[in-house]
Structures are given as structure tokens and as C-alpha cells.
Amino acid sequence: MAYYIGMNRKARLAYGFDEVALVPGQRTVNPDEVDITFQLEKNNFQIPIIASAMDGVVDAKFAIELSGLGGLAILNLEGVQTRYENPNEILDDIAKSTPERATKLLQKLYEPSVQPKLIQKRIEEIKKAGGVAGVSATPQKAEEYYNYAIESGVDVFVVQSTVATVRHISTAYKTLDLAAFCKNAKVPIIVGNSVTFEMALELMAAGPSALLIGIGPGAACTTRGVLGIGVPQVTATVDSAAARDLFFKQSGRYVPIITDGGMTSGGDICKAFASGADAVMIGSAFAKAKEAPGRGFHWGMATPHSNLPRGTRIEVGITSSLEQILFGPATLDNGTQNIVGAIRTCMGSVGAKNIKEFQMTELIIAPAIKTEGKLAQRTQHIGMGKN
Question: Which residue ranges form the domains of the chain, and what is each CATH number?
């Protein structure tokens, strides 16, 4: 429903995770018996959780660890891992930097060119350890880096930009023919990011294996402040899920959607699935892991932009191991640990035996969902009152 916001101008209401809640089902299911697997073409993942292609989250070691736990990590092919033979020194500098200096330092550290030999080296490190190798590149670099990645045995390739479209106009550089790229690809191609029904339909018609949903919701992202664009994640996911279902009805091809960003707790992730997601991509939650390369810090892919940074470096701290973040046991009371347990328990409570049934959960608009009855927690800054 749209409302007039001025003379002859309407605006649609949109909702984020904090403004909705899930309604329990008329039946319940044993959480240990629900199916949470995620299928990406021939690749079957035991958990529907993907780690964002951010330098404070994913390196080869992290990707190997998450693969072993049943998930997928995406390595940024335009980050420090492919610009420096020894990125640890660079990561140490970023962690030691003051907040005032961080953005300028990131801009400087991302100036050296990406080295093709390092693209291949990082992928080979993941593959030799038995991990699933997922990588990401911008549309301008996708074709070039894809060739190096394929030679090294990559499993999943992500084409990711702030706003993904099929019809990108530029006279300064060659634009990517997304349909041709997807058609000729030898591995699953994930494309992102988008937030609207119409754009999701257009992108799906180009032939990707999955679609990333979300513009600007990430903890380290400032796109919504710098550019003013974005759609809250619940509405973006619901609209994109509707496009996925219509596209499937019209073409017979199911294109999974992956809600990307804006989720800080197990509850947010559950709301993403209930809104229609087939999987989720998270960054800051994983940046807190001991195995993450960021040393307790997290920054977005657009932060190092030389002229218009659209992100910032944030301190998230190191709270536990990756396994504990995913599977517990939780030692924190804010929903940032045992994420998989939260998903399973929520599915059991709403009566969903699998992700497809989870997507049918009743949603309600509930702006007081995090504050109702929580005065003591807020005043004492514990539990749900920490945020």
C-alpha cells in the first residue's frame, strides 16, 4: 500500500527486521528433525548460511573451516588476499589503526593491483584442504578473474556490485554481458545485489544460479547514508521471493534468493527465511569468530573506494570460535551464537519441516517486538537491551 507524501507523490511502506515478528504455527516440529539444507545447482550445503566476501571475514583458512561445518564462504578477489603475498601484515595495520585514520588507511592499502597468481593461489589453498571455493568479483572484473578462478578449480563464482542490473550503461569501460556470462559459465553464478521485484525478474532471466538481496543493510556499510538508496530487508526479500516464484511458474527454473546483510542475530536470520529467503549471507556475525582474519574488526567492500567510500571499519570484537557461533553452546544472551540452533528451534516453533515451509510463516507488523516488556533489560543493557 502506498501513501501520499506530498502533492501527487506516493511512497510505499517498507519493513526491516526490527519491525516484524513471526507467528507460531498450529503445529510444532522437533527441531532436530527439520531440514535446513541449501541446494545451489549440484552443490548441497548442510547449512543455508554463506559468509560475505569481505576481507575482515573470509580468507582461505576461514573458507576451509566454514566448508567443514557445512556452509559456504566467499573470498573477495579484489581484496587484500589477492593484492598482497602476505596479507597478515596489512590486516594487522588495519586492526591497529585509529577510527579517524581507518578509512584513509584502507584507501591506501587497496591501491596495489590484484595479482592473478594470488587469485589462483588462494583458491588452490582452499581446494587442497578439501574446502568449497567460492569467490567474488565486480562486474567490470568478472570475466578476467573468472578465467583465473576456473583454472584453479573454483566451485562458485559471485558477480557482486552495490546495485546489480542487466542493462548497465558506460562509455568508459566494457560492460559485462550478464546473460552470456551466465550461459557460458562452468560453475554456479550468484549475482547481486538487488532489492526490487522488477529487478529480480530481469536478473533471473539472465540465467544466474542464485540472487543476492540487499542494498546497504550491512553493519559496516554506509551506502544508505552516502547515497540514500536501499530498501529494508524484509520488504526487499518478500518482493524478491515473489519474483522468484513468478519466474519459476513462467520458466520452470527455480532461482534461489539469498538475503544479504542486516542480520545481527539468530532472530533476524529466521525473519529473513520467513520473508522468503532460501539462504542468508552474513558478515559481521562471522567477523567475531576467532578464525576470521579481521582481528575483531569488520569493513565493507566499498570502504576502500578511492573517491567515495561507502562503508566504515567497525569493531565487533572476537567472541568465540566459528563453530560456537554456528552451533553453540551459546555463552552470550543476544542471539549471536548458536545461529543454526536458533533456526532449527524457530522452524520447530512455527511448524516448518524445511526451508520452503519456513517461507510460508505468518508475519506480523510488530514495532514493539523488541521493547515490549523488556524495560529491565534495556535499563541494565543486557539481553535484548544491548542493542
Answer: 16-385 (3.20.20.70)
